[in-house]
Amino acid sequence: MAVYTDVAFEDLEILLADYDIGEPRSFKGIAEGVENSNFLLQTDRAGFILTLYEKRVSAGDLPFFLGLMDHLASRGVACPLPVRSRSGAQWTILNGRPAAILTYLNGLSLRRPEPHHCASAGAALAGLHEAGKGFALVRENSLSVAGWRTLADTTLSGADEIQRDLAELISTTLQSLESAWPRNLPSGVVHADLFPDNVLFMNDKVSGLIDFYFACNDAYAYDLAVMLNAWCFEVDGAYNITKGKSLISAYRQKRPLSAEECASLPLLAQGAALRFLLTRLADWQNRDPNALVRPKDPRDFVKRLRFHLQTKNAAEYGA
Amino acid sequence: MAVYTDVAFEDLEILLADYDIGEPRSFKGIAEGVENSNFLLQTDRAGFILTLYEKRVSAGDLPFFLGLMDHLASRGVACPLPVRSRSGAQWTILNGRPAAILTYLNGLSLRRPEPHHCASAGAALAGLHEAGKGFALVRENSLSVAGWRTLADTTLSGADEIQRDLAELISTTLQSLESAWPRNLPSGVVHADLFPDNVLFMNDKVSGLIDFYFACNDAYAYDLAVMLNAWCFEVDGAYNITKGKSLISAYRQKRPLSAEECASLPLLAQGAALRFLLTRLADWQNRDPNALVRPKDPRDFVKRLRFHLQTKNAAEYGA
């Protein structure tokens, strides 16, 4: 939640000469997104977000991310639309960083979503999955099983400093997921990070989905498992099956789940919990004393993972 | 430039029930202000800033700061206007912090102001000084000579780590200012921190003055000396007399400077440079590895101070 790369008004003026989006009226760095530097730009015509992509987002992935938002928006998904420059480019270079201007979406993200919000968000996920069909580019999920192994290799030795027996928990879970991970589920474009801060609401309905910078091709049901982890646990770590039921049932109304997808939910949920546990653990261990972001506590996902390790079927999630 | 205290949408909803400012449409933490946590709130009626006051701003000073903005706005100064709650309160408590909602001003702050911007800003300072007359509350400048001594006591021992002979420079300057500081200049409400980031421009004219959280009662000409330090030096540390002339002459057109004020300018400029040198030095020495703000380089003001120590009269500033 910070601005890493500074953009002076004078830099902005030069940039805007290449775009047909009006005259700037207000320009502020916003505390949003762990990955990038974001600025809210208000012109006399509309609001926009200027994003400068920092080290975690590679320029090589921008055609996928920006093209996907373009594809989804044209199919009715409420997501930011990359604004093309006068020459038709979707992104440019600003202050040494790849940078893009996107349309601004109204709406507010919730900290404590209620079951009806989970339903609205679950339906939005299914809508995203359906709308993503036909998108031409492909991006492998670098944070799936192989990626977890890479993260585990670098984080395991210090894991027990966070919590007793954590290294053992990660190690055995990862081993079992490596052999049992479902590989033939219906797949396509997934968001892969649809936490409540990436869903905007207005009048209790989803008004927008944002932050597509982990989007990739993977099993649709894995995306649902990410959401179960992100939306359906209480602060004390307990699974709220009412929220789970709302989320899954609303999803299914827009995109039915196959028997294989349902049967895989406990494993997928384990994988999703492990993914966030491992990246948070790595961020925690590598936290830079000069960084502008406080790392999130990995232990939230230890609790979730332990829950998933003892579930036996999708019914326990409310499916 | 950060958000220190988090505000969830759910907290915001409870807060807004006490205000008659419309329904929230968008709410984002903004990377602005070293001192406080700031959020940009867009309702269906207008834009607002929600500020949570962190440790550097004491609740006891809020009646002065907020009352001053109210006073100035009612006299035509383009500054944020504190919005009163339904019960008439100018501030409240949110998430354990004093908090206020202020109107949002359009405009953009400049990184590299040109001479005509300096003129517009100088005129705005004089307008602020004139409009501040009649404001009933008084706040001593805690960052004047006595405050510098306090800061010097805690920072001097480590000063030479920043630059050779810096402790000696600070020490002799402070001693000379303690005996020579002008005490009988025309005084009143001053902004005391009118750097370019606190002045908004639209179409090359000042559209707003912001961040009144160092405002206090002091000599008007000291405020001008702060601006000479903040607006009229180039990146290499050279004084730009064209900018100085523009700023001072535009100021004088709205509020004439007395002969005593002019004669005091070199001393006041030394004091202003020492003030920012000392606070930056303290911030540098006390920087918290977990802080969300990178401290600014104190050496910028060493260069300015050395310049002021060799000026002999106001003409060298362009007066």
Structure, explained:
- The structure is a homodimer of 319-residue chains.
- With 319 residues, chain A is of the alpha+beta class.
- Chain A folds into two domains: 9-103, Phosphorylase Kinase, domain 1, CATH 3.30.200; 115-317, Aminoglycoside phosphotransferase (APH), C-terminal lobe (Aminoglycoside 3'-phosphotransferase, Chain: A, domain 2, Alpha-Beta Complex).
- Chain A has nine helices and nine strands.
- In chain A, the strands form three sheets. Chain A has a five-stranded antiparallel sheet with strand order 1-2-3-5-4, covered by helices on one side.
- In chain A, a hairpin with a 3-residue loop joins β2 (37-43) and β3 (47-52).
- The longest helix of chain A is centred in the last third of the chain and has 27 residues, at 259-285.
- The mean pLDDT of chain A is 94.
- Chain A binds chain B through residues 1-3, 8-10, 12, 24-32, 40, 42, 104, 106-112, 201-202, 289-290, 292-294, and chain B through 1-3, 8-10, 12, 24-32, 40, 42, 104, 106-112, 201-202, 289-290, 292-294.
List the topology elements.
Two copies of one chain form a homodimer.
Chain A (H helix, E strand, L loop, with lengths): L8 H8 L7 E7 L6 E7 L3 E6 L9 H13 L17 E3 L2 E7 L11 H18 L12 H15 L6 H15 L6 E4 L8 E4 L2 E5 L6 E4 H12 L9 H14 L4 H27 L13 H11 L10
Antiparallel strand pairs in A: 1-2, 2-3, 3-5, 4-5, 6-9, 7-8
Largest interface: A-B, 33 and 33 residues
What is the number of helical segments of chain A per DSSP (H or I, 4+ residues)? Answer: 9
Radius of gyration of chain A: 20 Å
- Which CATH architecture of the largest domain in chain A is right? Alpha-Beta Complex
- End-to-end CA span of chain A: 35 Å
Oligomer: homodimer
Principal-axes geometry of chain A comes out as globular
Q: How many domains is the backbone of chain A divided into?
A: 2
